[in-house]
Specification:
Elements lengths: L1 H34 L4 E7 H15 L3 H28 L9 E8 L7 H14 L5 E8 L4 H16 L4 E10 L1 H6 L4 E4 L4 E3 L11 H6 L24 H25 L5 H4 L4 E3 H6 L5 E2 L2 H8 L4 E9 L3 H23 L6
Length: about 350
């Protein structure tokens, strides 16, 4: 009996120590996060080096055991020589350079509210800070569209590159429709995979109305506005034909601005023929002038590695502890909403 009591007391002490250590670690982590007020971290990855390493791994895997030993021996000699040369350059105050221009690779996987524009803004600012005349930018874009103001801002961020005369290519592997195409058309060159979805230059909005349901249950909803068109259509009030007409008028005005923007970016397009809200697959989009070439982003990057140092630039926002738990739920809801819109074949913008 005494043995069990002593063993239970021992376990209680261990648990107490573990909990105390965990609490101290959490406090220290929170203090460190509070001191670090930066919104995020810029991550730069040399894709050319990654590709060369993968190439070498495949090459070595094809050799027999004796050839692998010889190869590793030669690599060690090579690395020692490179380290010696790098040390000598550092003493002379020189920087290592391949002599090639850089291809900066950015990624934009757009949600309905286009909140990813915050990271895109930081990435473009970083690229512009080091850009040289021979460099180029490649944006791997995936988005079925979303809210007007969000994608309008995203397109404006890409226009910063255009205004600085930075060569910009957009590669679309899956979808760049509606607001996604608004972004893509800013580029000097658009490359799309054969079955990627392109176009959908149109505007759509739908508003459920519960007025008759509430009326059936004798529930009144009062809506007070100042301004004739402060509210056109409502969720709970009785919608009028005048409100509907104004709502449609606003949609048409938005569509007109969308068409004008696309035509300004790609003046060779027959804008009236392609701005019908329809979407096309990559090969069909090329026939209509919506894209310039048919290829995947992978093949495009591999072909450019011969002439460019390919560098991926990604801004990772710093997340709070609670955000990490709630983010996945929000993303699931977001994906569900996007699926509903895609089933109707028309995103918001």
């Amino acid at each position: 009996m005494d043995l069990l009591a002593n063993y239970g007391l021992f376990l209680a002490k261990i648990v107490t120590v573990v909990v105390a250590i965990a609490a101290i670690a959490i406090v220290i982590a929170n203090i460190a996060l509070r001191r670090n007020n930066t919104p995020g971290e810029l991550k730069v990855t040399n894709l050319s080096e990654q590709y060369q390493e993968m190439q070498q791994e495949m090459h070595v895997a094809m050799l027999d055991g004796h050839q692998q030993k010889l190869w590793h021996k030669e690599e060690k000699k090579k690395h020692k020589l490179e380290a010696k040369e790098a040390k000598a350059r550092a003493k002379r105050g020189e920087t290592a350079s391949s002599g090639k221009p850089s291809l900066f690779v950015l990624d934009f996987n757009g949600s309905m509210d286009a909140h990813e524009v915050g990271a895109l803004r930081e990435e473009i600012t970083a690229v512009l800070a080091v850009f040289k005349p021979q460099d180029e930018v490649l944006l791997r874009l995936e988005s079925p569209g979303g809210v007007v103001h969000g994608y309008g801002l995203a397109a404006s961020q890409l226009q910063r590159l255009r205004e600085k005369q930075v060569p910009l290519t957009v590669a679309v592997d899956k979808v760049a429709a509606s607001g996604g195409y608004m972004m893509a058309c800013v580029a000097g060159r658009i490359v799309a995979a054969p079955f990627s979805i392109i176009g959908s230059i149109g505007v759509v909005a739908q508003v459920p109305n519960f007025h008759r349901l509430l009326q059936r249950h004798n529930i009144d909803v009062e809506l007070h506005t100042a301004g004739q068109y402060k509210r056109t259509l409502t969720l709970f009030g009785e919608n009028t034909e005048q409100g509907r007409e104004k709502f449609r008028e606003d949609l048409n005005e938005t569509h007109l601005l969308f068409k004008q923007f696309v035509h300004e970016m790609r003046p060779g397009l027959d804008i009236d023929a392609v701005a019908t809200g329809e979407h096309w697959y990559g090969v069909q989009a090329k026939e209509r002038g919506l894209v310039d070439d048919i290829s995947t982003s992978d093949d495009l990057i591999l072909s450019m590695m011969k002439e460019y140092d390919v560098v991926q630039v990604r801004f990772a926002k710093r997340k709070k502890m609670m955000d990490r738990f709630t983010r996945s739920a929000a993303q699931s809801i977001d994906r569900l909403l996007l699926r509903w819109w895609q089933r109707g074949e028309k995103p918001l913008l």
